[in-house]
Amino acid sequence: MSSEQQEPVTFVDKRKIDPESGEVREPDKAPEPGTENGGETNGNGAEPAAAAPAAGKEAELTADLQRLTAEYANYRRRVERDRKAATDSAKAAVVTELLGVLDDLDRARAHGDLESGPLKSVADKLAEALRKQGLEEFGAAGEPFDPTLHEAVQHEGDGADPVLGLVMRKGYRFGERVLRHALVGVTDAVPGETAESGEQTGDSAESATGEDATASEATDAETTGR
Q1: Please, which of 107, 135, 138, 186 could form a disulfide with 130 given CB 3.0 to 4.6 Å?
Q2: Helices (H) then strands (E): counts for the chain
Q3: Beta bridge partner(s), residue 135
Q4: What gap in Å lies between CA 171 and CA 198, rounded to an integer?
Q5: Pairwise CA distance, residues 150 & 145, whole Å
Q6: Residue 182 clears pLDDT 90, i.e. is over it
Q7: Alpha-carbon distance values, 138 to 108, 130, 141, 224 (Å)
Q8: pTM
Q9: Where do the H-state alpha helices sit in 116-164?
Q10: pLDDT digits over 60-96, tens only?
Q11: Which residues, 6 or more positions from 148, have their beta carbon under 8 angstroms from its beta carbon?
């Protein structure tokens, strides 16, 4: 027998089932290229390239932010518009309830009851307060007839140039909202009629004043003679 040392015999157990435990053996995984030493290098031994900035994701987030900002601005404008509309409706409702009071004050003014005294002060303060809130009256003799503002109950003439001849009840509006149409009689405008009417009214007033003065002097003379 040779004295040279023989090579040891190596056996590789390729059985898929462990004879002792009876469990299936997991096959050994071959190491990935370039990671034999446990490093995170690529095949060329260089470090992996850093991930590029997600430009697409950033642009998407920017677009979402802009859209949300625009939606919020529209929401604020819509809320402000609705709040103003609700406030105006509430004011208009209150003012509408006071139109009857204004009509009574107009009748008292026509009878001379508001020429002086505390009632005149109250009427003036009420009218000024309502005017500051946005109430506006319309409907005076001589104004052009507007069917969107005036309600005609009688008409004289052929309607060539209709104007207000007789105002039976004033109209009122609150901002752009018409609270009540003016109740009027419509007639045809005559060129120069307003100026002539004014002159005639002034002459009549002067004549009446002269007649009153003459009558007063005659009464005083008669009293003195007695």
Answers
A1: 135
A2: 4, 6
A3: 174
A4: 24
A5: 7
A6: yes
A7: 19, 14, 10, 53
A8: 0.52
A9: 118-133
A10: 898 999 999 999 999 999 999 999 999 989 989 999 9
A11: 178
